[in-house]
Amino acid sequence: MDFEHISTQKLDQTFQKLIPFRDSNLNTYFAGPVNARIIVFVHGFNLSFSLYSAFILTLQDQFRVLCVDLPGHGYSGEQNEYSLEVMVEAVCATVSYYKITSFMLCGHSLGALVAIAAYNQMLKLKLNPLCVLAFSPAGIQLRYSVGMRLLKFKFISQMIPKKTIANGARLEFWRRTGRFMPKQLWEAVKEEYNTMNAANKQRNEDRMIWMLQNFKWEQKEVFQQFKGRLCKVIWAYKDQYVNEEAGKQFLEGNDVFVQDTVNVIHEIPIACPQFCVNEIIKLMEMNE
């Protein structure tokens, strides 16, 4: 799949709002035609919804879009921990705050895992999510880097300075994100990321280290317990940290999942926003 021509237009900050969450806050964005169908989008690890501006702006031409910076990400406040349960609680709190019902959940990478986990919780809260579209979801089958393997041993991680861990994780993030991306798009993403990171550098490092050391990155039970009407998973094959073939085999045993594969980078909503919007439209139409 070829990269799309992508606008570097930023999101209108007048549609952003800080809402209360636990003892801190969440940065949210809610925009689009008032009476349109609603999409709730959840971003990936180390990112912010602001880095998906081309995707969100394309989406809100037809839909009303609700986004949230996950705890400790973007411009949301810090928490004592950053478990999947806290992430799910944040997304549910955002939906409850805006009093929306009958919406599609959509997520990328970590956000896709959070969206799938949030679905069942939202059913319990009677928030009425319709379906989930998961782009390159975390939680199924990883290929562990050397750094990720080392951090599994607490005695080793305790010997490594936190700054070294954070810098190493950031370098791996850049390699994963930038190695396939067109230069102009990559420069725009880096500029937005660096601006965001500068405002919350210490918080970002603390959260990143907590998640690298404590977050359970393979959570197949979340997928096995999914009871939704429909979840579509789209795999991106240019990803050195995900075992796509093993993931596909796992999903084939869970008949609530429809799956597809595309020859593009892990950050598919950033690199191919129109393709992703088209997939959302197709899944929405199937659930009408």
Automatic annotation (TrEMBL):
AB hydrolase-1 domain residues: 39-187
Coiled coil: none
Electron transport found in the keyword field: no
Keyword check for Magnesium: no
One MF term in the entry's GO annotations: hydrolase activity
InterPro entries named among the record's database cross-references: AB_hydrolase_1, AB_hydrolase_fold, AB_hydrolase_sf
Pfam family, one: Abhydrolase_6
PANTHER family named among the record's database cross-references: MONOACYLGLYCEROL LIPASE
Protein's name in the database: Alpha/beta hydrolase family protein
UniProt source species: Hexamita inflata
